[in-house]
Amino acid sequence: MKFNNRNVYISPKARIGQNVKIGDNTTIYDNVIIGDNSIIANDCIIGEPLHDYYHNENYDNPETIIGENAMIRSHTIIYANSTFGKNFSTGHRVTIREHSKFGDNCRLGTVTDIQGYVEFGNNCWLHSNVHIGQKSKIGNFVFIYPYVVLTNDPTPPSDICIGATIGDFSQIAVGTVLLPATKIGKHCLVGAQSLVGGEYEDYSLIIGNPGKRIKDVRDMKNRETGISHYPWPYNFDRGMPWIEEGFEKWKVKNGFEND
User: Fold this and answer.
1) Which of 196, 226, 201, 236 lies closest to 216 in space, CA to CA?
2) Which of 160, 18, 146, 13 has its CA nearest to residue 27?
3) Quick check: 46 and 65 in contact, CB under 8 A?
4) pLDDT digits 0-9 by tens, 200-248
5) For residue 53, which of 2, 49, 154, 197 is within the disulfide window of CB 3.0 to 4.6 Å?
């Protein structure tokens, strides 16, 4: 189904699943695979060709795989040679460059910019206006809030590219910059507008410019209840897969016993 069947191009080499809806003015390039029940809204480009397309007459577009139940909102551009798990979603005007890999249930906010050659686990949520530099590696259940930037060049301009790494269940608050090669452990919280470099152990509260480990996040108390809020999965379940049974039972069943 197409929204209004206006100015839609779907390559004959693309593979479109069952009950996929494609909006007006959208282009689906060669070797794109879109899973069942997905929605590609108006003015999107899926499988944007790579640089060689413009110079090599024998160019063959790499596969772009989008899992089932995707929601790709208007003016999103997804470059070829990227993979997305089921239930992937974007806001408007999102750009995702080549060699990007996302797990299941990931969502990207409006005007997010993914520079390619990145890896994301499952259930990552990026809010609006987030920039992710090349070679970044993001774990599972990582939340990245608006205006966060992950950088990758330690001596700009250079040909060196060392992305940041963020462990499972960590939170990166508004306006933070992670410097090249930064390593954030599991269950960390990076405070708003921090400038962070170096390596940080699990359960770190990191704040400041320059960012410093202040204390263990498990020592932080909720202002209203006086109870420790972290690790946050024990206290937050909206949209999470453990909403029915709680995090304690869920983590044992799903390979997160040590979290």
Assistant:
1) 201
2) 13
3) no
4) 999 999 999 999 999 999 999 888 888 888 999 999 999 999 999 999 9
5) 49
Q: Say how many domains are in the chain.
A: 2
Cα–Cα dist 26/20, whole Å: 13
Residue with tokens 């809020």: 229
| CA gap 19, 190 in Å, rounded | 41
Which residues lie closer than 8 Å to 245 by C-beta, 6 or more apart? none
Are both 110 and 203 inside the same structural domain?
A: no
Q: Please confirm whether the linkage preceding 210 is cis (ω < 30° from 0).
A: yes
Output the six-digit token pair for 51: 């640089």
- My answer on whether 89 and 198 are in the same domain is no
The CATH number of the domain where 240 resides is what? 2.160.10.10
Please tell me the distance from the alpha carbon of residue 215 to that of residue 238, in angstroms, as a whole number.
27
Task: Tell me which residue has tokens 């040590």.
Answer: 258
pLDDT in tens, 14-57: 999 999 999 999 999 999 999 999 999 999 999 999 999 999 99
In whole angstroms, what is the distance from residue 65 CA to residue 81 CA?
8
The pTM (predicted TM-score) of the whole model is 0.94
H or E element at residue 247: helix 247-253
